[in-house]
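Friendly challenge for the regulars: who can give me the structure tokens for this chain first? No prize, just bragging rights.
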Amino acid sequence: MPTYIVLANMTQQGVQTVKDIPQRRAAAKEAAKALGITWRDSFLTMGQYDVVFILDAPDGETMAKFALQTGMRGNLSTHTMRAFSDAETDALVASL
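First reply, four minutes later:
Bragging rights claimed.
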């Protein structure tokens, strides 16, 4: 499955309800699982982004659906990137 890195920032609503992060994370994991997405890890970060998720999704459409569902909750705004493993990168480069 393709890997995706999601960079997220908390909205004002997300900051105001920051103590709910454990429950929101659990709900996000369940939503991801329902879509067939594997939750690899998540991090609270310092710097330009507040949160980083690493997920494996069946395809881009599924990942987009998850990102939209996440945004609809109103606590995070997301930026999603497709990530290529070393093996995927090597195969891609070899095909050039």
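The two ends are 22 Å apart (CA to CA). Residues 23 and 91 are 40 Å apart (CA to CA). Your move, everyone else.
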